[in-house]
Amino acid sequence: MEFKGDYKQQIRFYYSIKKKTHSIYDLIPYIIDYKYWFISLKPGGIWGPYELIQDLNLNVCPYCNRLYTITVIGGVKNVRPELDHFLPFHEHKLLALSFYNLVPSCDVCNRTLKSSKSISYKEYLNPFEENLGHKLMTFSYIPKTYEASIGNSNDMEIQIKYTGPVTDLLLKRKVENNIELFKLKEVYQQHVELVGEILKKRHISGDKYIDILKSTFKGCVFTDEGVIFVSLWKFL
Prior knowledge:
Elements: H1 7-20, H2 28-31, H3 34-39, H4 49-56, E1 82-85, E2 102-105, H5 107-114, E3 137-143, H6 146-149, E4 156-162, H7 169-181, H8 184-189, H9 192-205, H10 207-216, H11 224-235
Antiparallel strand pairs: 1-2, 3-4
Helix pairs in contact: 9-10, 9-11
């Protein structure tokens, strides 16, 4: 399955194949030997998980955009991020080696938050789906005191909301379910001290600091608050 062409037709085709293979479904892990043939392969030689992750060139978890997913080859040990089955392996064994179902991700999102939860494309957004300009959600902050508004206090609330097409209710539900599944509001709330640090710099230097941030991230159109959160993501 891939995200181009007639997407709905591809989904229907996949489920028709899944139905036809129902009688041998328990044998599929032995036919598509994900665990012992693919996931255990070391770098070099036969193309495997290390090469896949390097070719994808995703250096931060696409679920939370907080933790690095860097691959390091060589030395005493090789390091690579986990490969999450977006559609759980135990329910979709046919997609064990589908590139669009293998998402390089951090341990927190993969094992702790997502785990083996039963999800679908109707309810959740796959990171490989089209997201032009990354404009499906925005971050904002609400200071609860004046001191928080100038960075002298962490008494503020981080907010995340859907900002995609208002008429696309399916997409809205998928994005909001992702926000809930990966606890994005809660985990980013833990970084209020970084928001406060940026606000303090802005208060001390005036709008000159905002101008510097805007010139740093050329080509992006943001409100002043948006610039603050882009720089926050760079901190993380």
